[in-house]
Write a structure and sequence with these properties.
This protein has about 300 residues and is of the alpha/beta class. The protein has 9 helices and 11 strands. The radius of gyration is 19 Å and the shape is globular.
């Protein structure tokens, strides 16, 4: 029995998103996709040089590779990020992805030099159901977990990419913030949508209105960071966390994850959210829960242990 996942379409008459249910795929659907389904290699992929990928078992590492500009994203990099994250979402052999920056910084946002000198070539799709955001994958609704390994700067559009992730592992010296406030560049990659839901409107307004830098420990108190780790360890800790998440029964994990997102962003009422939870959780009982209960009855996982599951 397969898991019900999300597929988003646009109701142009109402200007709203409408959810459709399907029981035909465990991979789910994004807002849109430019990548075909394919098996990723175990070795690093150059991916145009600006994005690198590496397969680690059932985990995919996706790295922004423009260290000379603190991994600021230009048009080509945005496209490559969209391709790689879309491919991850469609690959049945990958359970979790880790997004990181190469060379000491996560992402300094959109490349303002490209914006300043090539604004005529910058074509933005205003209909969020029809094309990518400026940073690339920011309009995706992924069906599987994404973890951001944050080092150095994760600011402006880079902060918005970090907000796309389910979890953020942040190094002690990292700096996050809406730095684009200084230059009149708006948050149009989901920052004003995801940030208030993640840390509350009051904290979000503090960041959005002031553009001030936020250090790792403060980000942890906000809930903007999920883990704070020593410098140089974000990627390794994020990988270990991804491997742990990947080891769990995936139908159940994705049903619970997707239900939480639906309740926060899409449900019109408490009752609708509860019904969605039941409708998408119930098929998992036959598919995974009975086998899990049998394992528990035989002694596995007693005392709250997570090893040898």
């Amino acid at each position: 029995m397969s898991l019900t996942l999300w597929r988003l379409s646009c109701n142009k008459g109402l200007g709203r998103s409408v959810l459709h249910k399907t029981l035909s795929s465990i991979t789910g659907q994004a807002f849109y996709s430019t990548a075909s389904k394919q098996t990723r290699p175990n070795a690093c992929s150059a991916a145009g040089g600006m994005v690198v990928t590496e397969r680690r078992g059932t985990v995919m590492l996706i790295g922004i590779n423009r260290p000379e500009v603190r991994n600021a994203v230009n048009h080509e990099t945005a496209h490559r990020l969209l391709v790689e994250l879309s491919a991850f979402d469609q690959d049945n052999n990958i359970n979790v992805a880790v997004l990181h920056g190469v060379g000491g910084n996560f992402c300094a946002g959109y490349d303002l030099k490209e914006l300043a000198h090539g604004s005529g070539a910058l074509k933005l799709e205003q209909d969020v159901c029809r094309g990518p955001g400026p940073m690339g994958p920011s309009r995706l609704k992924l069906s599987k977990p994404l973890i951001a390994a944050v080092s150095g700067y994760a600011v402006a559009g880079g902060l918005e990419l970090a907000l796309l992730a389910d979890l953020r592992v942040v190094e002690e010296s990292s700096v996050m913030g809406v730095f684009c406030r200084r230059f009149g560049v708006p948050l149009i990659d989901g920052g004003t949508v995801r940030l208030p839901q993640l840390i509350g409107l009051s904290h979000a307004m503090d960041l959005i209105l002031t553009g001030r830098p936020v250090r790792a420990q403060e980000a942890l108190t906000f809930g903007l960071a999920n883990r704070v780790v020593p410098d140089g360890q974000a990627l390794q800790v994020a990988l270990e966390l991804a491997e742990q998440i990947s080891s769990f029964p995936q139908l159940c994990l994705r049903a619970d994850r997707n239900s939480a997102y639906h309740a926060v962003f899409d449900a019109a009422s408490f009752t609708q959210a509860m019904q969605y939870e039941m409708d998408h959780g119930f098929p998992v009982i036959q598919a995974e829960s009975i086998a899990g209960a049998t394992k528990f009855s035989s002694g596995t996982g007693r005392g709250g242990t997570f090893s040898k599951l």
